[in-house]
Amino acid sequence: MNIENLLNLGASVIQGNDDETTTSLDTARLSSALGNLFKGNEGKLDFGTLLGKMKESELGDVAASWLGNGANESVSGETIKNLIGPDKIADFASTLGLSEKSAEDALADALPEMIDKASPDGSLMENIIDKAGDLGGLLGFARKLFS
Question: What is the mean pLDDT of the chain?
Answer without folding.
Answer: 83
